[in-house]
Structures are given as C-alpha cells and as structure tokens.
Amino acid sequence: MRIALVVHGFPPHECTGVETHVAALAKCLGQHGVEVEVFAPRKDPRAPEFAQRREAREGYHVTWIVANQTPRSAAEHLDRPGMAAAFGEFLERTRPALVHFHHVVKLGVGLIEETARRGIPSIYTAHDYYPICHRTVLARPDLTRCSTLRDSAACARCDTAVSFLNRQNRWSDYHAGVLPESLPAAERTELARLLESSRPASEYSESIESRTALDLRRKEAFDLLDLVLAPTQFLRAQLIAGGFDADRVVVDPYGIESAALEALAPPRDSSTRLLTFGYLGGALKHKGLHVLLEAFAPLRDQARLVIHADSSDREYVHALQLRAQELGVDWRGAFAAAELASVLEGIDVLIVPSIWWENAPFVIREAFAASRPVIASDTPALRESVRDGVDGVLVPPGDVAALHAAMQRFIDEPELFKLLMGNVQPQRSLDVQCSELLERYGKLAPGKPKLPEGIPASARAFTERVLHTEQLTLRELAQTASEGLSALAASLGVDPTLAQPVDVRELAIEHLQDARREIAWRVSRESRSIADLERERELRMALASELKRAQADGDQARNALHRAQIELAGRGRELEASEQVIDAARSALAEEQRAHEAARSALEAARHALEEASGYCNQFAAQLEELRVAREELARELSVSRAGALRAEQRAAELASAHTDLARGFSELLAHAQWLEQESASLARRFGHDAVALHSGTDFIAARAAVDRFERELAWRRGEMTAAQREGGSLLRAIVRRSGLGRRLRGWEEDK
Amino acid sequence: MSTPVSIVIPALGDRALLEPGLRSLVKEVERRGAGDEILVVDDSGEVQLGPWLYDRFPMVRCLVHAENLGFAKALAAGIHTAAHPLIFAMNSDVRVRQGFLEPLLEAMGDASSSVFAAVPRILLHGRAGAVESLVSLRLEGGVARAAQPALEDSDRAVLDEERLRSNYPVPFPIGGACLLRKDLFKRIGGFDPAFEPFYLEDLDLGWRAWKAGLSCWYVGASVVEHEHRGTIGVRIPEQVILTAIERNRLLFTWKHLDDPKLQGDHIRQLSLRVGEAGITEDRTFLSALCLALEDRHKVVGDGRARASGETASFERIRTESDPFREG
Q1: Which of B200, B236, B314 to mutate to test the interface with A (most CBs of A within 10 A)?
Q2: Between A and B, how many CB-CB pairs are < 8 A?
Q3: How would you label B83-118 residue by residue, b for 16+ Cβ within 10 Å and e otherwise?
Q4: φ and ψ at B38, to 5 degrees?
Q5: What does the DSSP 8-state code read for residue A67?
Q6: What value of ipTM does the predicted structure carry?
Q7: Are A540 and A564 members of one domain?
Q8: Mean of the per-residue pLDDT values of chain A
Q9: Residue A203 resides in a domain
Q10: Domain identity same for A588 and A520
Q11: Which of A432, A439, A676, B165 has the greatest CB tally within 10 Å of its CB?
Q12: For the segment B221-267, what is each residue's pLDDT rounded down to a tens digit?
C-alpha cells in the first residue's frame, strides 16, 4: 500500500512536535511495509513557487513543495492559490491509495478538496484545533481560552482584534496573542472592547460576513474527509462540538519512539542534589514560559531550571531570556530531535505551564518514557496525559503561586518525587500506533479499486484492471512495461537487448520529469509574466505619459504657485505697509477730523463774523441812506436858512468828509467781506476735495500734506478774519466816534 | 428478387437510441421485400427489449442473453442465430439510407466470391464527407493504427465526393455497419476474444480474412449514418476506453506483425516510447502496454490463435488493403 502523509513542515526545516512525529511515523510505516510519500512545504528562495523536489529518506520519500510566498489574505491562508493544483500533480505522480493529512496550514484546505475530487480516501489527524478554529489554538488574541464554537461572529471579533494588534507595530509578531498586561492601558482597553461579545455586530459586519464564508469553506473541505483522528478525548469532544460527525472522529493517542528514552538513567530526587526542572518546547506566549519563570523566581537558590525553547516570537523570547538571565536560569534554546534523550537526561522534572487548551504534548510522553515526572497545567486534555498525584502534579493554568508551590513540593518532598516517578506507565509506542493506523488505512483503502456504477458485465474485469493500473505510479508502470518488453521480445523471437530495461534510466526520468514540470511551470509563469509585463509596460507607459503631463502641469502649477507666492509675499509686505499706512492714515484722519472739526468751528465763527460784518454793512448802508436823506434835508434846510447855511455847509462838509471816510471804510469793508467770502468758499472747496482724497485713502501722504497746508492756511485765515473783524470794528468805531455821527444823529433826531 | 439478408443489431437496451434506427431499417426492409430478417441481440443482461420490440416492431426478432456479453460476442451470437448466409452487422445508433443494401450485395458477389465483407459509406452524424469506413492500416511508432483519412483534417481534402462514391479495398469492415458472409466468418474463427471487451476486434477479423486470402471492401454507393451516441462511451469511463484501444492496437500488432525486421523495430520503438512516456507522463500508453503485456500470451507464442489457410504477410495485406495506394 502506498500512502501520502501531508504536513505543514518537515525536518530538517521544521522540527517541532508534529513535524518530528510525522517524520517518525513515516519511517515506522515504511518499516511496516507501507510505501510512504510525504508532502511538505518549505521555503527556497532559489526555486520557483510550487516547484517540487522528491528526496529519498530512510524508508520513505519526501516531496518538498516550494512555498516562498506569504499568504496575502485570510482567504489565501485558508487555501493558497495554486497549491491544490500542485498537490494534484503530486497525487498524479505518486498515486497514493490514501492521503493522511497532519496539517494543512501553509498548504490550504484545497488539498483536501483535490484529494476528494480524485476519489482518494483521506484521514486528518487534528494535532490542534484548526478544523474548528482558524487561529488553531482556541484562544483569543488576549490569550484567554475560547469556549465559543460554531460562532463566526466570535471568530470575526478575534479577526478585528488581531487586525488591531497588527496595526500596533510593536505587536506585529504576537503569534497566538498578546499578554494584555503588557499592553499600554489604552490598547488594553481597546483590545478588551473589540473582543467583547456585546459589541454591536454592525461595527464589524464585514468581518462577520468574511469569516462566515471562510468558516463555511473550511467546514465543507473538512467534511470531505473520511476519518478524523484526535489524540485526546477532549479534542475529539471539541471537534464534535464544533460540528464534526461523532462517527467520523476517533481518538488515536500519540505513539512515540521510546527505546532510547527508556534506556536513560532515572532522575534523582532533591535529597542528594539540587533538583533540575526543565521546559522543552516552543517559546510562545500561550505555552506559559513567563509563568514558569515567575514561579521559579523564589526557588532560584533551591533548584535549577533548564529551558530548551525557541520561537520566531523574538520579542517574547528576548524578554524571557532577560528574565531567565536575572534568575540564573539555564537557557539553552532549541534542540535537535536526535538530542532529545540527552536533553531529558539533564532534567529531573518536566514542566508544562501552558495557559491555552493544551492538547497532547509529545514531550509529556517522552518525559514519562524517560521516567521523568511532570508538573502540568490542569486543562482537560492534559488530565488525560498526566494523573494528578499519581505520575505528576496538575496546577491551574497561569497560576504562578500554584506552580511555585508544586515545584516547592518536589524540592521539599523527595518521597513525592519517588512516588510519582515510580507510577509512570510505559508509553504507547509509535509501532503500536502505526499498526492501528494500518488497520484504518486498510478499511478506507482496501486496495481493490471501486468500479463506477453502470459498467456492463462484459467490461467489468477489464475496467478493474485499468483502474488497478491507475493506482500504480508512473515509475512502476514504466518498470513493469520495461520488464514485460523483454519477455515480449523473447516471445516474438526478437533480440531482447532491443528492449532496454527502464530502471537504468529511472533516475534520469525522474530528473527529466522534475525538469519538465519545472519548465512547464516556468513557461506558464514566464508566459504569464511576459503578458503581465506587457500589460504592465503599457500601463507604465500610459502612466509615464500621464505623469509627464502631470509633471508639466505640476511645473506650471509650481511656477504659478511660485509666482503667486512671490506676489503674495509682496502683497503681504504691501499689506503690512498698507496696514501701517492705514494706521498712520487713520491717526492722521482722526487728527484731520479733529482739525476739520476745528476748521469747521473756525469757519462757522468766520461765517458768524461775516454775517455780523454783513449786518454792520447793512447797518452802514441804512445809516448812509439816512445820512443821504439827512443831507438832502440839510441842503433843503440850508436853502431855507442862510444862517444855518454855513453851519449846514460846515456840517455838510463834515458829513461829506464823514461820508467819504465812511464810504471808503464801507468799500474796504465790503471788499474785504467779499474777499473773505471768496476765500471761505475756496477754502471750503479745497477742504472738501482734500477730505475726499483723504477718505478714499489713495494718497495718504499727499492728503496729509494737504491737510497740513489747509490747517496752516486755516489758522492764518482765522487770524486774518479775526484781524479783519477787529479792524472793521475799530474802523467803524473810529469813524463813528471821530465824526460824532452818532451824537449828531441823535441831535438831528432830537432837532427833527 | 434480391438476396435476403439477416440484419443483426447488438443492443444494450437503449430504446431511444434503437428506435429511429429500427424505423429506418424496417422501412427499407419492407421496401426491398426480399425477406430480410432483423435480429436484435438484447445485450443488456436483462430482458429489456423483447416485449417492447414485439409491441413496436413485430417483425423484429429478439435474441436475449441472461448476461451482458459485449459487442463482439453478442454480434457473434446473432450471426450464429441468423437465418440467412449474409449478415448485415449493425450498431444500434446507425440509421440506414434507402437502397443501402443493394450496392453491398453487389459488391459481395456470389457465394463463391472471395469477398468476406463489404462496408457502406458510414457518415459520422450524417455529415457528407465524414466517412468512418474508408480506412487504411498504418504503423505509427511501430504500432498498428486504423487511420480514417476522411475524418482526419490533413487527409480530408483528397477525398472528394466522386472518390467517396467508388469502391475500395479496406483492411477491415467496421463492425458498426457491414455486410459479411456468415460461413466465412465462421471459417476464419469469428471474433478473437483477446480483444474483449471492445474495440479493434473488427480490425483483427478483417485482417484475418485478408490473411486467409479473402478481402474486404468499402462500397461508396451504400450509405448509412452513424449517430455515434455512445453505445459504450456512456457506460464506460473514457480512460478505460482509451486504454482498451491502445492495448488492442498493441495486441493486434503483436498478433499480426510477422516481419522480423518490423518486429525488431517495433520492440525498439516500444522501448523508447516507454522512456518517453515516463518523461511525458503518458499514463494511458504505459497502462495499455502493461495490460497488453499481461495479455500477450493470447496473441503470441503458444496462445496465438491461427486460423487455417493464413498466408498473406502483414506488409502485403497492408498494401493490398490500402484504399489509397497508388495504382
């Protein structure tokens, strides 16, 4: 029988529990007469994606498939594009009677579908919770254990929380999750909020939709399996609770290669020397190494702790290493499978401090095979491996104090150590597990091909024979044909050397097949690449011309911008200056307004003076008229009275003189009043014009000068007006006083 | 009055496939009025056709077998049961055209003729020019292949209607529609079971006839249509059919290739092709070769069935039976 074992990693490239177990299983099955073909991914930057290389191992073959590319989405994590087709080629070439999957992460559920499509029976061993939890660990991103199954909304909350953590750069390598206490308060609060079940679904409806579709796809793929094996009852129960048919899930405990371990010397208790506690496994947060270090801290002077661990979670490993150094812990890093016995020989008690739903660690079986008792976290699955108080001690997961107390007991109670050590049972061997697997394989793949329905009886035998050849590999077919050809040649009486046996060319053929596949792959890839490059070239050319145009536009815009900036700067400066000018103008304007007000008052006063002068003029004119009348009367009187003629003549001369003075004074006064009126009007016009110029703000400096001028002129005119007013008044008074006109007028009035 | 013919139709029970063929056949038989016999061999392995035939085609006889025999055995059983010395073997998906029998009867000659079989112009899906029955035997990679030039694009151009209407020697009469002589069929041993369950048993039959000094002819004036609706193809996976064809080509070659030089060349080419198939992953060829090698004892060495009077060599028959040979 030929079977294919599919696993997500394989030694020497991947050497953790599952990978090492599958390698041992392949070898053991080979020893049971099974032809084993292992299919596993590996990174090889020198090889094209999905290139396959077949290597001979001890009793089996490994086909490596190159998987350099990292999945770009959750959908690609679930099913890597192209991987199923590549696996189809592997199946085509190796023709397994059955495919036994040990993991499909890094490969994709498409492999299960491809197997089913070809009608090949399949088994899946659930080494973790991947069939029901896309995160594989059934733990949420805050590393709390998850009990919510078949709820895509809950899984979507994990997705959104992971996305949140991914966005925080320092948590990019968080693996199964982060320890919330290591987060800043705000991030811790946000993480808790994102995981809160009462969170409104509308907040992450897209995530729910996406996760629901992916979960459905995963379930449909896993439903195609004929049988699912679970190493523990707990995992089986979880799978059933997660939607698997109970009939299809059976418990198949791990077997181990125990001979080398059983040969080790038993450990010694603390009565004769310092007890050595040991941790073997991954340095991942959910494995609880940080809990172990803190539990050991108070015991650093009473016992030793050796840690054989590593992982790609470098930040966590670094923190652990620093803490281990502080505590004097012997940090050894990873070890090779071949070193297991010597590693176990160096410890007395194994500690498994996991804080997740730990399943069935191989290391517990290996420690028991080497008669080392175990302290483990008290999870349902670990209870199936470790019997509390019988061959080990169970402590609540994540409980530093409880773990410390258990370790302390081992130190303080040598009798307990001996008791537990004495109760350790022989472990299930890999050989037994293989025998049971073979039975399962035989039931699912009985060897005789199943005939399709409806084959006429006359064709059944031949169809069966054809289907049988379908189970043979190409190599086997070629080998059989080649051998038969020699016999045929003999039967026909032909020189048998003409039928060259094909086995001498087997190696070359295999290499040629590999090369052909690689060439085909390269051709298809290159064709795609050339087409892609052509498209990309065209796109780039279009983009280049667009870019050129955009660059030209940009240059233009930049120049315009530059110009605008310069202009703006100028305008800014102008504005600044204008603001200063405006401020100055405002001040000047205020001052001018004040001056204007003063000028207005002065003008008003001048106008009053003018009106007063005008009143005087009218008065003088009336008096002049009166004098003229009086003269005419006097003349008449003169003609009447000769005596009075002389006097009248004298008075007339006086009056004529007074009249002349008065007329001259009046004329001067009138001329002065007219001039004053003209000047006032001119002044008002100019002031009005200057005020307009001042208000429009077009030329503040000129306006200011005009105002100054106006002010000076106004002051001068004010003086002139006052002087004229004074002079006019004095003149009138002098004339009136000198001529005794008032008195004479009054006398004349009295005479009359 | 024309010579009566027994028309033997092996059928797997597909009434829908059989009915139109029978209708055209009954009409033609009635037209001829020569006392032809129609015999349907119910090869379904169940009694599926008898009552139906009795009801729909009362003139048709039905031969029932308790189990499915396969085409060759069912046809042979029908031939043995047939009333007349001339047998028209016919697939259930063949439709005859009016007057198809007369040209065939004419080509067969009288009872003393050495013509073993005459095959009509079988038009695939009734398409003019798509002639299945105008065949020649070629050696490709040292292995015999029945070439059908009228169906192969590269050769179709040379076959105009006038040529197709003529008569030509052919290596074998296609079992799906051919007139053959019952006594000669028995004399050359009938179908070789080595070719079971299907394909190329008719090539072997015709070749043995040629070997026995008989001949087979393509008669262009006789026309039938082949619907090719899959008497076998609908029931058997394609891979099995392809493997059967490849295996039987090898068995035929081993059985009849008699020139030591050609045999040596055949073995050498097979050996090379094994390597080539390993590289090109030609599983069909390798599977067929493995199966043929398992069955080789049926056609070579002690197990080789030889009919009496086989004289002509492989190459001579190949030349004489080639409808396209010069001259």
Answers
A1: B236
A2: 145
A3: ebbbbbbbbbbbbbeeebbbbbbebbeeeeeebbbb
A4: -115, 125
A5: -
A6: 0.94
A7: no
A8: 85
A9: no
A10: no
A11: A676
A12: 999 999 876 667 778 999 999 999 999 999 999 999 998 999 999 99
